[in-house]
Write a structure and sequence with these properties.
single chain; about 140 residues; mainly alpha; two-stranded parallel ribbon; rod-shaped
Length: about 140
């Protein structure tokens, strides 16, 4: 048990416990006699702890499952194109895919990761495009 003092039960607490008991009876966890007995106890309960004891063996605890976070595939593509394909098309693809990945990651509300990969891929893409521009300007100047 917790060290916190037990709070007095409100009408809403009692109704919520009654609903859980009725759902348990519909699921076959309680027979009709036990349901009537527990409903009477729920309506006469003064403390929230009493309500919790009435429902703890018939209702499963609430479990919140957060879906796993996934790495954005465009972030990986951007990183690979930026690192391994330094030519014009690879650099351009790294920049485009990186910006698309960053946009998707921002809209995913924390469900996608890979922001660092997208940033690095985008940076390498811009570096490749800058190098290409420098080579073109150098060749034209000669």
């Amino acid at each position: 048990m917790s060290n916190e003092p037990d709070l007095r039960a409100s009408d809403a607490d009692r109704e919520a416990a009654v609903e859980r008991l009725r759902a348990a009876a519909l699921d076959g966890r309680l027979d009709s006699d036990e349901l009537e007995e527990r409903l009477a106890q729920a309506y006469s309960a003064r403390w929230r702890g009493e309500l919790a004891r009435l429902t703890e063996d018939v209702t499963p605890p609430l479990v919140f499952v957060r879906p796993e976070r996934q790495v954005n595939p465009l972030a990986i593509v951007s990183l690979v194109c930026g690192i391994f394909w330094i030519g014009f098309f690879g650099s351009l693809a790294a920049v485009v895919m990186g910006h698309l990945a960053l946009s998707q990651i921002a809209r995913s509300r924390g469900m996608q990761t890979g922001r660092a990969a997208a940033l690095v891929g985008t940076a390498f893409g811009y570096l490749g495009l800058t190098a290409l521009l420098m080579i073109l300007l150098f060749t034209l100047a000669i």
